[in-house]
C-alpha cells in the first residue's frame, strides 16, 4: 500500500514484565502475524496470556519485517502543522535524528534487539 510506518518507543529497552490475558480473537490475530514462529511458547496448550515484553518483541519483529522504522528513546509530544515550505525538515525529523538509538530493518540496536533473536547483518560499501 506504500505507507511509511514510524513506531516510537519512549523507553530504551523492553523491560515491562506485566502479564496480559489475551482474548480469543487477539490470539487468532497474533497467530496470523506469526507470533508462534517468533515466540514458540505463545499460547501453548491452554495458556492464554503473554508478558508485555514478549508481546512487544513479537510485534517489533513483525514491524521490522514489514519495513517499519522504529525509534526508541523518543516521546510523542504533539502534532504540528506542516511547514509552509515543504522542503523544510519537520521538527519530528530533527528530534529523531538526535536520539541515541534507531532501529531499522538494516540497522542495529544492541539493547532493544537483545531479546528478539534476529540475526542482523549490516551491509555497507566496505563489505563488497
UniProtKB/TrEMBL annotation:
It comes from the Eukaryota. This is Microtubule associated monoxygenase, calponin and LIM domain containing 3b. The lineage of its organism: Eukaryota, Metazoa, Chordata, Craniata, Vertebrata. Gene3D superfamilies: FAD/NAD(P)-binding domain. Residues 82-104 are annotated as: Disordered.
